[in-house]
Amino acid sequence: MTVRFECRTRTSMPVRELFDLSRSIDAHTGSMASSRERAVGGTTSGLISYGEEVTWRAWHFGVPIRMTSRITALEAPDYFVDEQVRGPFRRFRHVHEFARDGEGTLMVDRIEFSAPFGVLGRMVERLFLGRYLQRLIETRNGYLVSGRAR
Predict the structure, then answer these.
(1) How many Å is the Cα radius of gyration of the chain?
(2) Which of these, 40, 42, 54, 93, has the minimum number of CB atoms within 10 Å of its CB?
């Protein structure tokens, strides 16, 4: 089963600035400090671009996790897509969209993922994994728009 959710974040930050912050390996690392996430392979600092990969190492649920994702689509400053190429999910896709919204920007994150392990994975998805990932994205977005990422 595929789990889908969407996070919407409004900010006074200009579209291009938020687009670039969202592609920043360094800002991502700062936003995920609680899970000790760090880039250990591929693009490990600066802005990630189309076709590039990054391998992340983090701790979630007390377990070390490695995940490699690739930027599979990018149209600056409107959107980009990252997808897991290796990692803990059977499938993971994150669409990042940016649009002018009055004097600021609306950022929309669309996440789709499937856990491995068949029926057991579907139970984990429903019981807590979807909510856990949504909170991670909301925390990340709060960090990006707070000014701490700049």
Answers:
(1) 15
(2) 40
